[in-house]
Amino acid sequence: MSLTVRIKKKLSNDFVLDIEFETHNNICLGILGASGAGKSMILKCIAGIEKPDEGFISLDGTALFDSKKNINKQARERKVGYLFQNYALFPRMNALENIIAPLNGPKKEKLLRAFAWINALNLSGLEKQNARKLSGGEQQRVALARMLITEPQAVLLDEPFSALDSSLREYMQFTLLGLLQGSAKNARQNQEDNPVFHKGGKPPPLRSPRLRLRSSPLPPASDGREPYGGFPASLHETQRDAGNLFNNAILVTHSRDEVYRLCPELVILKKGKIMAQGETRTIFEKPPSLSCASLTGCKNISKITRTGDNEVFAVDWGITLRTKENIRDDISHIAIHAHHLVPLWNGEKKDCNEIQRGSYQKSLSPFEELIIFSPAGAEKRQEGRSIIWRKTQGSGGGEIPAIPERFFLPPELLLPLRQE
């Protein structure tokens, strides 16, 4: 069960979308990239809204597009669900009318299927509400119900959280992950539990009781948070055993937090080309290139001059560094994650990779503190870049009692980067 994409499409004289990837392992694939990288165009080509110039798209072994065989199925024939960035609800319709809009057939059957998803998505009581009067989170759930009611074989999510405020965004991320892990089973069970399904009666009243999702709740974001704002690997692993809809799901985003939370596998896109693909945790921990490091949130990056097989001079920091990895000729930068800097206290010494702190400033947030400092002597050189040390606060909170004057950059945690 997989979605295979291998396409080319010229968007302008200097921009050609040229990508190849495959979803597998019953998990959600993330596509991360800056605005204008071509992320949404990929989804439109998969859904049949746009036509590639050449290539091949197949869903579970069925060709949706094949330029060599002149195959280009219409969007309605592809069995692909698309959640648009702005949700694209019909403004003159109420919630229920929006949900059943893509369905054909008897009204009774459409209502049965609609109320199954209304219950599954906690939309009971909002059925008659006009789409324009729904909150952002309610609009998103209505759009989800409208997409999932058609029982798509693939789910495409185009920056679904970008229009939500931060607290609602995090809540909806939890909801979406729990929903997609068990959505088909939940909705099917909701429909079978409905007495109308068996007795041939009328659909339930519009003010039907609110039901909660049957899927297990996720832990709060502040518990067990990973270095990049994501969740522990165990949550990624639950996706690998998830239900039908996660067989083929793609999330497009420019948010590294979203992709780390929701997508165990990742594609990084830049100007229509794939810069990296593989396990999300691995790419975040060891980005292969300068653009990948920037997109995944690595804070400390310096240009280098190669001085040996395992030695570089970090130009922006004014320090010679030893590395565990060999420095290839195509390596142009060195990086280290902010949480990997090791503070040196009470005169502690290392035989390499010590950096003296110069002036600094603090940046506080509820669960961590950032120390942004200039390497000693940077003020005199009038060049260079600041270095960031990230200190996660303990359960009791509070600021760091003192700021060390020196830091150690472990050779095994330095990241050699190539520039594309």
Low confidence ranges: 183-188, 194-244
Q: Which CATH class of the largest domain is shown?
A: Alpha Beta
Q: CATH topology of the largest domain, what is it called?
A: Rossmann fold
Shape by Cα distribution: globular
| Number of continuous helical runs | 11
| Main β sheet profile | 6 strands, mixed
Short description:
The chain is α+β, with helices and mostly antiparallel strands and 420 residues long. The chain has helices at 39-47, 95-100, 107-120, 136-148, 166-193, 195-199, 233-240, 256-262, 280-285, 290-295, 378-381, and strands at 3-12, 15-23, 28-33, 54-59, 62-66, 71-72, 80-83, 154-158, 249-253, 265-270, 273-279, 300-308, 311-314, 319-322, 331-336, 342-344, 354-365, 368-375, 387-392, 406-408, 415-418.
Keywords:
single chain, 420 residues, alpha+beta, Rossmann fold, 6-stranded mixed sheet, 5-stranded antiparallel sheet, 11 helices, 21 strands, globular
Could you please describe the fold and organization of this structure?
The chain is of the alpha+beta class and 420 residues long. The chain has two domains: 3-289, P-loop containing nucleotide triphosphate hydrolases (Rossmann fold, 3-Layer(aba) Sandwich); 300-418, no CATH class. Helix content is 25%, strand content 30%. It contains eleven helices and 21 strands. It has helices spanning 39-47, 95-100, 107-120, 136-148, 166-193, 195-199, 233-240, 256-262, 280-285, 290-295, 378-381, and strands at residues 3-12, 15-23, 28-33, 54-59, 62-66, 71-72, 80-83, 154-158, 249-253, 265-270, 273-279, 300-308, 311-314, 319-322, 331-336, 342-344, 354-365, 368-375, 387-392, 406-408, 415-418. The protein has a six-stranded mixed sheet, sandwiched between helices. The chain has a five-stranded antiparallel sheet with strand order 2-1-4-5-6, with helices on one face. A hairpin with a 4-residue loop joins β5 (62-66) and β6 (71-72). The longest helix has 28 residues, at 166-193.
